[in-house]
Design goal:
Elements lengths: L12 H11 L2 E6 L2 E6 L10 E4 L13 E10 L8 E11 L10 E12 L2 E5 L1 H6 L9 H11 L1 H7 L13 E8 L2 E8 L2 E8 L10 H21 L1
Parallel strand pairs: 3-6
Antiparallel strand pairs: 1-2, 1-4, 4-5, 5-6, 6-7, 8-9, 9-10
Length: about 230
């Protein structure tokens, strides 16, 4: 008999990190005390803008000293939430030479990868990062969330009916805060704080074109709950 495994309802830390890397338009590179803002790098490596490789263990030639470097990325919600910072990603490692903006990408010997979000700090290994895939919605999430918030506020109100436990009285507004292959996250804002509610899809999507059917399934469940509540 096969052991029961609960289906995932949210991305792993490695998946989130890969998605943030894939969607990032810029990052801050810190080397030798200097901060450089890197913009519009080409998506060329297995990890998006960055080519990461395992430490070689061999000493670098004297004419190409390795430079310690830190890459910093922030994940900002595209919708007008009260607190829009969703996560920070920090990658540390070694460059075999100064960063050259003309190269269009960064080749770095992996040192450490850290994901920080409201849930805490998580360390991600190079193997985990390389085995994880960016979310199918990573590069189009911002547009989809903005469209949902601006053009379908009635849908968002219906989705609140699926939140468990049901929201306390005094909710000022509800906004979509995140969207990925596993589900949608709503932000419920109160006068003195907020609460995030996760609404998982019945099945993770594998293509952005599947989002419409997944959202319609959630809305159908919300309408059914509303109908039943009126009957009782």
């Amino acid at each position: 008999m096969r052991p029961f495994r609960a289906r995932p309802t949210r991305p792993t830390s490695a998946e989130r990190m890969r998605s943030i890397l894939a969607a990032a338009h810029s990052m801050t590179l810190v080397s030798d005390g200097l901060h450089t803002e890197v913009h519009r790098l080409q998506d060329t490596g297995t990890n998006g803008h960055i080519h990461l490789h395992a430490p070689s263990g061999a000493a670098s030639p004297s004419d190409r000293p390795c430079l310690p470097v830190r890459l910093e990325l922030t994940d900002i919600a595209p919708t007008p939430l009260r607190d829009r910072l969703r996560a920070r990603v920090t990658l540390t490692g070694l460059l075999t030479g100064p960063y050259d903006e003309r190269a269009g990408s960064i080749c770095m010997e992996f040192g450490q990868a850290v994901l920080e979000d409201p849930g805490g700090r998580t360390f991600v290994t190079l193997d985990e990062l390389q085995q994880a895939a960016p979310d199918p919605l990573a590069t189009c999430e911002a547009g989809m969330l903005t469209h949902l918030a601006d053009g379908h506020s009635d849908f968002v109100s219906q989705l609140v009916r699926l939140v468990e436990p049901q929201p306390d009285t005094g909710v000022l507004r509800a906004l979509p805060a995140a969207l990925d292959r596993y589900g949608v996250t709503l932000r419920l804002e109160y006068p003195r704080g907020h609460r995030d509610a996760r609404l998982p899809f019945a099945k993770p999507l594998t293509d952005p074109d599947q989002l419409g059917s997944r959202m319609q399934a959630l809305l159908a469940t919300a309408r059914r709950i509303s109908h039943l509540s009126r009957l009782t």
